[in-house]
Amino acid sequence: MRTAIVAHSDTDGICSAAIALSRFPGSRIFFSKPASFLNELDDLREESLVVCDIAVNRPDSAALAKKLSARKVLYFDHHPMLPGFKKSAKGVVFHHDQRVSSSELVYRAFKDNIAPERVWLALYGAIADYSDGTPFIEEKMRNWDRRAIFFEVSSIVMGIKNEGFSDYSAKRRLVTDLARGMNPSDMPRLVESARQAVVKESELYEQVKKEAASFDHVGYIIRLEHFGFRGPAALFAATATDKPLGVAAFERKNHFDITLRARDPKLKLNVIAEKAAEAVGGSGGGHPNAAGARIPLSKLKDFLKKADELVG
To answer: Which domains are assigned to the chain?
Structure first.
C-alpha cells in the first residue's frame, strides 16, 4: 500500500515527518497547513496517509472527516481537537494529546520499528514546540548531552527561517536526511543559515521597533519582508509597543497570513485567533501560546479590533 506523509512545515512537523519516514521508507512527503489541508488532499493519490501536526480547521471539519474516512489514516496531532471530529472521521486512527508535541506522539507510536537514535528527532521537535516538559521527554533527555541537543534544535529552528531552507522542497530534503540518521549540524549550509537567521532576527527587532503600531491591548506590524520570521515579528510587536498581544500580518496574493504571540501567558491565543478570524470571514487557531489566522485582505483592521476586544 502506498503511503504519503503530510506534515506541518515547522520543526515539530519536520521531525514528526522524519520519524514517520523512518517507519515507512519510500513514502512521499508533503507539507500542508490547516486552512489548505482539505483542498490539498485531492492531490494525494496514496491509499494510506500519516498526518502529523496539522490542526483541524473548523469550517472544513465535516468535509475533511469525510475525505479522511475514505483512506487508511494515522493522525498525529496536539492541537485542540474539535468536538465530534474523531467520531465523524470513521476509521481514522488518532494519536492526540494536547500536552505533548507531535514528534513525541509519532516516536512513541513507531519506536519499536525504527532505530533507537530516532528519539533525537522526538527531542528536537518537542523542544522546538516548547513541549519538552513532558515525563517522556525529560526521561529521554537524561540519556544525552542537553547542550548538544539544543544546538541541533537551534540549527533546524533558525536554519529553516532563511530562504535557502524555507521552501517545501528544501524541507523535504531535511526530512529525508533526518530519517536517514543525519544530524542537523551535519547538513550542508544549515548551521550557517541558522547563524544568518540570528543576525536577521536582531535586524528585524530594530525594524519592528520603528514601524509597529498598536491598539489598546495589541501591538502589530504589517507587510514585513521575511515570512519565515513571523513568530518573532509578532512577539517583537508586543514587546516594542508594550502590549500583551502581538500580531504580525503578512500580505499574500489574496489574503493576510496572521501570526499571534503574547507576552502574557494567560492569553489563549488559539481562542483569540479563531474568534477574531471568524468574525471577519476568515479562519484561525493553533495553540494557546502560538496561533495564526488567515483573513480577507480588506479585513485586517476589523480583525485587529476584534482581537483587541477579546484581550480587553
So the answer is: 3-191 (3.90.1640), 212-311 (3.10.310.40)
